Amino acid sequence: LAGRDIKTEHTVVKLKNCSIGGGNLFIIAGPCAVEGEEMIYELARLLKDMGVNMLRGGVFKPRTSPYSFQGLQWEGLKILSGAAGSVGLPVVTEVTKIQDVEKVCRYADMLQIGSRNMQNFGLLTEVGRSGFPVLLKRGLSSTIEEWLMAAEYILLEGNGQVVLCERGIRTFELYTRNTFDINAIPALKSLTHLPVIADPSHGTGRSELVAPVSLAAVAAGADGLMVEVHPNPGQALSDGVQSLTPEAMKSLVQKARNLHSMV
Ligand code: PEP
Ligand code: MN
User: Fold this and answer.
1) Residue 4 falls within a domain, yes or no?
2) What is the ipTM, given to two decimal places?
3) CA–CA separation, 70 vs 146, rounded Å?
4) Neighbours of 215 (CB within 10 A)
5) Which of 202, 226, 238 to mutate to test the pocket of ligand 1 (most atoms within 8 A of CB)?
6) Residue 178: nearest ligand to its CA?
7) Residue numbers of the domain that contains 86
8) pLDDT of residue 2
9) What pLDDT is stored for residue 258 in this prediction?
Protein backbone atom coordinates (compact mmCIF):
# COMPACT_ATOMS: atom_id res chain seq x y z
CA LEU A 1 0.00 0.00 0.00
CA ALA A 2 2.95 2.34 0.59
CA GLY A 3 4.44 1.73 -2.86
CA ARG A 4 4.43 4.24 -5.65
CA ASP A 5 3.42 1.50 -8.05
CA ILE A 6 0.13 1.30 -6.11
CA LYS A 7 -0.43 5.05 -5.78
CA THR A 8 1.49 7.41 -8.03
CA GLU A 9 0.51 10.78 -6.57
CA HIS A 10 2.26 11.90 -3.37
CA THR A 11 0.32 11.59 -0.13
CA VAL A 12 -0.38 14.87 1.64
CA VAL A 13 -0.91 14.38 5.37
CA LYS A 14 -3.47 16.88 6.62
CA LEU A 15 -3.33 18.45 10.06
CA LYS A 16 -5.45 21.22 11.63
CA ASN A 17 -4.57 24.14 9.36
CA CYS A 18 -1.49 22.78 7.63
CA SER A 19 -0.26 19.74 5.75
CA ILE A 20 2.88 17.65 5.34
CA GLY A 21 4.07 16.68 1.88
CA GLY A 22 2.19 19.34 -0.03
CA GLY A 23 5.30 21.10 -1.33
CA ASN A 24 6.15 23.30 1.64
CA LEU A 25 9.02 22.44 3.99
CA PHE A 26 7.31 21.27 7.18
CA ILE A 27 9.39 22.06 10.27
CA ILE A 28 8.73 20.39 13.62
CA ALA A 29 10.68 21.55 16.67
CA GLY A 30 10.64 21.34 20.42
CA PRO A 31 12.42 19.77 23.35
CA CYS A 32 13.31 16.10 23.57
CA ALA A 33 11.14 15.99 26.69
CA VAL A 34 8.60 18.34 28.22
CA GLU A 35 10.27 19.40 31.48
CA GLY A 36 7.78 21.89 32.86
CA GLU A 37 5.11 24.44 32.10
CA GLU A 38 7.25 27.55 31.87
CA MET A 39 9.89 26.13 29.50
CA ILE A 40 7.42 24.71 27.01
CA TYR A 41 5.12 27.75 26.88
CA GLU A 42 8.09 30.04 26.33
CA LEU A 43 9.62 27.76 23.72
CA ALA A 44 6.32 27.34 21.87
CA ARG A 45 6.08 31.12 21.52
CA LEU A 46 9.65 31.45 20.21
CA LEU A 47 9.21 28.55 17.76
CA LYS A 48 5.93 29.90 16.45
CA ASP A 49 7.49 33.34 15.92
CA MET A 50 10.41 31.92 13.92
CA GLY A 51 8.07 30.07 11.55
CA VAL A 52 8.15 26.52 12.89
CA ASN A 53 5.04 24.55 11.78
CA MET A 54 4.57 22.08 14.62
CA LEU A 55 5.58 21.65 18.25
CA ARG A 56 7.15 18.40 19.46
CA GLY A 57 7.83 17.18 22.98
CA GLY A 58 8.18 13.81 24.61
CA VAL A 59 6.18 12.96 27.73
CA PHE A 60 6.54 9.16 27.76
CA LYS A 61 10.27 8.80 27.27
CA PRO A 62 11.55 5.37 26.25
CA ARG A 63 14.98 5.84 27.86
CA THR A 64 17.78 3.32 27.48
CA SER A 65 18.20 3.24 31.25
CA PRO A 66 15.16 2.83 33.53
CA TYR A 67 16.96 5.13 36.00
CA SER A 68 16.97 8.09 33.55
CA PHE A 69 14.20 10.72 33.49
CA GLN A 70 11.10 9.00 32.09
CA GLY A 71 9.11 12.10 31.16
CA LEU A 72 6.24 13.92 32.86
CA GLN A 73 3.71 11.41 31.51
CA TRP A 74 0.02 12.50 31.40
CA GLU A 75 0.67 15.71 33.30
CA GLY A 76 3.31 16.58 30.69
CA LEU A 77 0.92 15.82 27.86
CA LYS A 78 -1.66 18.27 29.20
CA ILE A 79 1.03 20.95 29.58
CA LEU A 80 2.33 20.27 26.05
CA SER A 81 -1.12 20.47 24.54
CA GLY A 82 -1.85 23.70 26.40
CA ALA A 83 1.41 25.27 25.21
CA ALA A 84 0.77 24.33 21.58
CA GLY A 85 -2.79 25.62 21.79
CA SER A 86 -1.64 28.91 23.33
CA VAL A 87 0.28 29.77 20.14
CA GLY A 88 -1.94 27.91 17.66
CA LEU A 89 0.59 25.23 16.65
CA PRO A 90 -0.34 21.58 16.11
CA VAL A 91 1.56 19.12 18.30
CA VAL A 92 3.16 15.68 17.94
CA THR A 93 4.17 13.40 20.79
CA GLU A 94 5.31 9.82 21.11
CA VAL A 95 2.89 7.13 22.21
CA THR A 96 4.52 4.00 23.60
CA LYS A 97 1.62 1.80 24.68
CA ILE A 98 -1.42 0.38 22.91
CA GLN A 99 -3.70 1.29 25.81
CA ASP A 100 -2.59 4.96 25.69
CA VAL A 101 -3.40 5.61 22.02
CA GLU A 102 -7.00 6.74 22.43
CA LYS A 103 -6.21 9.17 25.24
CA VAL A 104 -3.11 10.63 23.54
CA CYS A 105 -5.30 11.39 20.49
CA ARG A 106 -7.37 13.74 22.67
CA TYR A 107 -4.34 15.95 23.35
CA ALA A 108 -2.12 15.63 20.26
CA ASP A 109 -2.59 16.23 16.54
CA MET A 110 -0.19 13.52 15.45
CA LEU A 111 1.08 10.31 17.05
CA GLN A 112 4.79 9.56 17.00
CA ILE A 113 5.99 5.96 16.88
CA GLY A 114 9.54 5.98 18.19
CA SER A 115 12.48 4.11 16.83
CA ARG A 116 12.31 1.46 19.55
CA ASN A 117 8.70 0.68 18.68
CA MET A 118 8.95 0.64 14.90
CA GLN A 119 8.28 -3.08 14.92
CA ASN A 120 5.80 -3.09 17.79
CA PHE A 121 3.15 -4.48 15.48
CA GLY A 122 0.29 -4.31 18.00
CA LEU A 123 1.00 -0.62 18.55
CA LEU A 124 1.22 0.01 14.78
CA THR A 125 -2.16 -1.63 14.26
CA GLU A 126 -3.68 0.41 17.07
CA VAL A 127 -2.43 3.77 15.72
CA GLY A 128 -3.64 2.60 12.31
CA ARG A 129 -7.12 2.03 13.72
CA SER A 130 -7.12 5.46 15.38
CA GLY A 131 -7.19 7.08 11.92
CA PHE A 132 -4.89 9.76 13.38
CA PRO A 133 -1.83 11.12 11.48
CA VAL A 134 1.25 9.06 12.41
CA LEU A 135 4.94 10.00 12.41
CA LEU A 136 6.78 6.70 11.99
CA LYS A 137 10.44 6.85 12.94
CA ARG A 138 12.95 4.44 11.47
CA GLY A 139 13.98 1.59 13.78
CA LEU A 140 17.42 1.73 15.40
CA SER A 141 18.84 -0.86 13.01
CA SER A 142 16.07 -1.25 10.48
CA THR A 143 16.41 -1.56 6.74
CA ILE A 144 14.30 0.62 4.45
CA GLU A 145 12.30 -2.47 3.54
CA GLU A 146 11.52 -3.29 7.19
CA TRP A 147 10.54 0.34 7.77
CA LEU A 148 8.16 0.35 4.82
CA MET A 149 6.65 -2.92 6.06
CA ALA A 150 6.05 -1.26 9.45
CA ALA A 151 4.20 1.56 7.63
CA GLU A 152 2.20 -1.13 5.88
CA TYR A 153 0.75 -2.27 9.24
CA ILE A 154 -0.71 1.23 9.71
CA LEU A 155 -1.95 1.60 6.14
CA LEU A 156 -3.58 -1.81 6.30
CA GLU A 157 -5.99 -0.46 8.95
CA GLY A 158 -7.23 2.12 6.45
CA ASN A 159 -5.08 4.93 7.85
CA GLY A 160 -3.09 6.54 5.02
CA GLN A 161 -1.95 9.51 7.11
CA VAL A 162 1.63 8.32 7.63
CA VAL A 163 4.87 10.33 7.54
CA LEU A 164 8.25 8.56 7.59
CA CYS A 165 11.07 10.04 9.67
CA GLU A 166 14.72 9.15 9.07
CA ARG A 167 16.54 9.44 12.44
CA GLY A 168 19.80 7.67 11.79
CA ILE A 169 20.77 4.04 12.14
CA ARG A 170 23.29 2.19 14.26
CA THR A 171 26.63 1.60 12.58
CA PHE A 172 30.21 0.94 13.76
CA GLU A 173 30.82 4.71 13.90
CA LEU A 174 30.87 5.93 17.50
CA TYR A 175 31.84 9.58 16.98
CA THR A 176 28.19 10.31 16.28
CA ARG A 177 25.25 8.81 18.19
CA ASN A 178 23.80 7.34 14.99
CA THR A 179 24.67 7.52 11.31
CA PHE A 180 22.13 9.69 9.51
CA ASP A 181 21.23 7.78 6.35
CA ILE A 182 20.96 10.48 3.72
CA ASN A 183 20.44 7.76 1.07
CA ALA A 184 17.11 6.87 2.65
CA ILE A 185 15.55 10.19 1.65
CA PRO A 186 15.81 10.05 -2.14
CA ALA A 187 15.39 6.25 -1.99
CA LEU A 188 12.06 6.60 -0.16
CA LYS A 189 10.92 9.43 -2.40
CA SER A 190 11.09 7.02 -5.29
CA LEU A 191 9.82 3.93 -3.44
CA THR A 192 6.81 5.42 -1.65
CA HIS A 193 4.17 8.13 -1.98
CA LEU A 194 4.35 8.88 1.76
CA PRO A 195 6.01 12.12 2.94
CA VAL A 196 9.56 11.76 4.29
CA ILE A 197 11.09 13.99 6.94
CA ALA A 198 14.51 14.08 8.63
CA ASP A 199 15.48 14.12 12.31
CA PRO A 200 19.12 15.28 12.33
CA SER A 201 19.10 15.57 16.14
CA HIS A 202 18.90 11.83 16.85
CA GLY A 203 20.58 11.22 13.48
CA THR A 204 23.81 12.83 14.66
CA GLY A 205 23.56 13.24 18.43
CA ARG A 206 25.72 16.39 18.22
CA SER A 207 24.28 19.89 18.08
CA GLU A 208 27.06 21.23 15.82
CA LEU A 209 26.10 18.68 13.14
CA VAL A 210 22.36 19.36 13.23
CA ALA A 211 22.26 22.35 10.85
CA PRO A 212 24.54 20.93 8.13
CA VAL A 213 22.77 17.56 8.15
CA SER A 214 19.37 19.29 8.08
CA LEU A 215 20.41 21.20 4.98
CA ALA A 216 21.73 18.02 3.36
CA ALA A 217 18.34 16.38 4.00
CA VAL A 218 16.50 19.31 2.45
CA ALA A 219 18.81 19.19 -0.58
CA ALA A 220 18.13 15.44 -0.84
CA GLY A 221 14.40 16.08 -1.09
CA ALA A 222 13.03 15.80 2.46
CA ASP A 223 9.49 17.12 2.96
CA GLY A 224 10.35 18.39 6.42
CA LEU A 225 12.59 18.39 9.46
CA MET A 226 12.18 17.49 13.10
CA VAL A 227 14.70 19.22 15.36
CA GLU A 228 15.22 19.16 19.13
CA VAL A 229 15.39 22.64 20.64
CA HIS A 230 15.90 23.50 24.31
CA PRO A 231 16.01 26.95 25.94
CA ASN A 232 19.12 25.87 27.82
CA PRO A 233 20.65 22.71 26.27
CA GLY A 234 23.29 22.39 29.00
CA GLN A 235 20.54 21.93 31.61
CA ALA A 236 18.28 19.61 29.58
CA LEU A 237 17.02 16.45 31.33
CA SER A 238 17.49 14.47 28.09
CA ASP A 239 19.40 14.87 24.82
CA GLY A 240 20.92 18.27 25.67
CA VAL A 241 24.09 17.51 23.66
CA GLN A 242 22.10 17.32 20.44
CA SER A 243 19.65 20.15 21.18
CA LEU A 244 19.82 23.54 19.50
CA THR A 245 19.24 26.82 21.29
CA PRO A 246 16.25 28.82 20.03
CA GLU A 247 18.69 31.28 18.37
CA ALA A 248 20.46 28.50 16.47
CA MET A 249 17.08 27.08 15.44
CA LYS A 250 15.96 30.42 14.09
CA SER A 251 19.01 30.62 11.87
CA LEU A 252 18.45 27.02 10.68
CA VAL A 253 14.79 27.69 9.81
CA GLN A 254 15.84 30.59 7.58
CA LYS A 255 18.62 28.65 5.85
CA ALA A 256 16.47 25.55 5.35
CA ARG A 257 13.60 27.55 3.84
CA ASN A 258 15.97 29.42 1.52
CA LEU A 259 17.51 26.17 0.35
CA HIS A 260 14.11 24.48 -0.04
CA SER A 261 12.96 27.24 -2.37
CA MET A 262 15.84 26.31 -4.67
CA VAL A 263 15.43 22.50 -4.78
C1 PEP B 1 12.18 11.29 19.96
O2 PEP B 1 12.11 11.83 18.84
O3 PEP B 1 11.66 11.78 20.97
C4 PEP B 1 12.90 10.01 20.11
C5 PEP B 1 12.88 9.35 21.27
O6 PEP B 1 13.56 9.60 19.01
P7 PEP B 1 13.85 8.11 18.49
O8 PEP B 1 12.60 7.30 18.73
O9 PEP B 1 14.14 8.33 17.04
O10 PEP B 1 15.03 7.61 19.26
MN1 MN C 1 15.48 13.01 22.13
Assistant:
1) no
2) 0.99
3) 28
4) 18
5) 202
6) 1
7) 13-260
8) 97
9) 98
The model carries a pTM of 0.98
Residue 49 CA, distance from chain mean position: 20
CA distance 222 to 259: 11
The CATH number assigned to the domain holding 212 equals 3.20.20.70
Cα separation, 215 vs 193, in Å, equals 22
Provide residues with CB under 6 Å of ligand 1: 32, 58, 94, 114-115, 137, 167, 202
**What are the per-10-residue average pLDDT scores of the chain (263 residues)?**
95 94 97 98 98 98 94 98 98 98 98 98 98 98 98 98 98 98 98 98 98 98 98 97 98 98 94
Is 247 inside a domain boundary?
A: yes
CA distance 140 to 131: 25
Ligand 1 atom with the smallest distance to the CA of 226 is: 2
Q: How many distinct structural domains can be found in the chain?
A: 1
CA 25, CA 20: separation in Å to the nearest integer?
Answer: 8
Distance 176 CA to ligand 2 centre (A): 14
Ligand 1, residues 93, 167, 170, 204: which to mutate, most atoms within 8 A of Cβ?
167
Q: Which ligand is nearest to the CA of 116?
A: 1
- CB atoms within 5 A of ion ligand 2 belong to 32, 239
Q: Is residue 1 part of a domain?
A: no
Is 88 a member of any domain? yes
